[in-house]
User: Fold this.
Amino acid sequence: MTASNVVKRDAPSARPAPYKFSWAWLGVMPFFLFAFMFLIYPSSTIALGSFQDTNTQAFTLQNFAHLLQNPNLIAAYWISIKISLITSLGGGIFGFLLAYAAIRGGLPPFMRSSLMTFCGVASNFAGVPLAFAFIALLSPSGVLTGWLKAMGYNPYFHGFQLYTFWGLSIVYMYFQFPLMVLVIAPAIDGLRREWLEAAENLGASSFQYWRYIALPILLPSILGTMILLFGNSFGAFATAQALTGGQINLVTIMVGAQLRGDVLGDAGLGYALALGMVVIMAIAITGYTVLQRQSERWLR
Amino acid sequence: MTHLELSHISKQFGQTAVVQDFNLDVKTGEFVSFLGPSGCGKTTTLRMIAGFETPTTGKVMLGDADITDMAPNQRDVGMVFQAYALFPNMTVAQNIGFGMKIHKEPESAIKERVIEMLALIHLEQKGNSYPAQLSGGQQQRVALARALANRPKVLLLDEPLSALDAKIRVSLRAEIRAIQRKLGITAIYVTHDQEEALSISDRIVVMFDGRIEQVGTPFEIYNFPQTAFVASFVGTLNTTDAEVIDPVKKLIKIDGVQLETAEELQGRKKGDKIKIAIRPERLNFVSVEKKANILDCTVENITFLGSVVRIQVKIGSNRFNMDTFNNPFLELPKIGAKEQVSCSREAVIILNS
Amino acid sequence: MKRGSVVWSWFWMILGIIYFFLPLVATFIFSLKAKLGVLSFLAYQQLFNDPDFIKGFSYSVMWGILTIIVGILIFFPTAYWVRMRLPQVRTAVEFVTMLPFVVPAIVFVFGLVRTFSHPPFLIVDSPALLVLAYVVLTMPYMYRSIDTGLRSIDVRTLTEAAQSLGAGWGTILFRVILPNIRVSIISGGFLGFAIVMGEYILAQYLAKPAFAPFLAYLIQQKAYEPAAATIVSIALTWACMGIIQLVGRGGSQPQIAGGH
Assistant:
């Protein structure tokens, strides 16, 4: 057996090269066809529509101009960004502390797997059921409101409102922090115990270990996941819709309203709105991917 | 002068006693190895010196200070880990200088020390590289420099070479020993590789099942093993059962053949069953040299190991290995041939257990 | 571990547990309050007798099952082919599987309605469109699951062994490879199923009967039945996650920017 025989066996596509190549490409055609027909093409019609005049179909940038001139829509973007920043920061920090506590915090081992299961359920629980669960909890006739009132404290007398920005933020946190826990857990696993011991051995206190070693190493992962959380919140629709009946001014709500045919009346504007969303999501997903790759270099 | 003292150290994990009644005095500048198979307690003992485990009973004294319960970041010991444990987000220079930075030493002092350390480990050009850009051997040298930069009183090494290739292991262990000698620092070295321990230690502590089996110089451990475990773990050995014939004349017999030993048989009487051992290199064919003890044998197998030729012979019902240096011009016997082997009185070792 | 830090760990853990369980407990209590003054399962009785619930729930189950089947039929052979014959196309495929994250569901359905409301693709009213849309929505999770499963077995050797014994492609794929990645298929399948069961946006805007739109409607109409329905939905999600943990490596895949 010569070396060339061995090479031939391991590279079937090397034999009748052009033939094998064209047949093999056929194998992935169904997938790309499917993705094109039912994802790429429909999504690109949105992009195309945003550059078209509603009536004449001619190329125009007017839709974007109208978007930037519409105070309602600018406010919608701003509110969406605000809620996404708050819940990604809050959910991110809380999720990280929770994940670290369960994995490296000296708790019994079953806490980790229980936490992972809860978080799997919670991150999937979003949407209409979650909205109702919080209504059952904190609406004026909610269970927790009732308990607090029985203890003499009525949150509604102190300015609390569930169907507002802050109420929605609390609801959003419910699926944000589990997402953080699930995504950051592998990174925390990657924090090798020897680094802590080496640091202690060289005289570092707990704070110094975190400041010089653990946090710098985890930062790309934490930051990347928070960006993911931002995108997650920005694109959320059903929860806000079910909780506020579409009353709150978010970009997703606006797009939904546009779909139903009311509010804007100008189709092109609606498409511009939607495209703006996609651009923001794309930036978020890219940021996440880049930072994930960076963190994997140190935490393999 | 005792620098590091461990007295009656023991460690329990639940019901299991991982280390039992460990006692050791280490002198300043001494290089001591903890040698033993996996699970014998050597790493646990080392970690108790470092402070990553607390002894269940016993005391650890470093000089005049009792460090038994001291936190690991307060002790003045430097540790080198098996997995290097270099901080991936810092350069080599930053890793080495980290201990001094924690102790708030001035920038200039840190810079100077880092240059000194890089020269010591022969990696002067790698100060600005990251650990991921270095080979395994280079990373371990940086880990060594990082531990030494802090000027610790004792250097602890936890199987530092296990993760490296065989050739690098041999050269790096010599380098570690050379650095240790040059700095005169007390060192404790944990390993399961007996060749490693024999080649670089001042003294070896052989451990098994949480206990110390024997403490001694490499020469003592190899030539005068006190227990069957030490004898079999360190180097190859032929062991067999024997019976005492005459305690005064130091005669014993194995399988009906009489042997004379040089060891004391006091306290034993005729008919006592004992265990003896003979090193393979202490046996030779009578055609080469005739010594006090002569035994008949049959040649069973001949294995060529490079510089050593190992001949397996059958003496009575025992199989013995006989090692001789390779000599291309010496004629070796055929398999199945009947020969005579001999060994001196001193070659017959009595085992205590 | 130092003593102080364990206290903090318990603190955050307990906080997390409270935050997690409070809404669930509240919903459950709420669901028992249908009968005035006494705790009962009246709301559940009303729910299970509600024809709209039965309709919404069973349709969602059907969408879920169809989605899994179609998904496996598209993604499994593709993942296999990429791994076996076309590794150079892998980056493109993985990029495509990430795209559903970039297009939020509300925008996605917007595009679907626009594209498929006009000839020659006038299928906006067809249930097939909903199922295919769901397959797109669950693509990141299902494809990733299958791909991970294929990575952990020696696909090449299994294929060559089967070929040398005379097996055709159908047999190789579905009787040799598929059974060996059972765990990944089940994990991905149940995750996809859970997502479809809770999905609101696509079902609502493509005007198809499903559980989540039914729940949204119920919230406007009734007081206590929605609580019972929410508990049912939670129990179902929990069951799916539990099965995934039981069967598999336990690594929960989080749901990101999808149907909520």
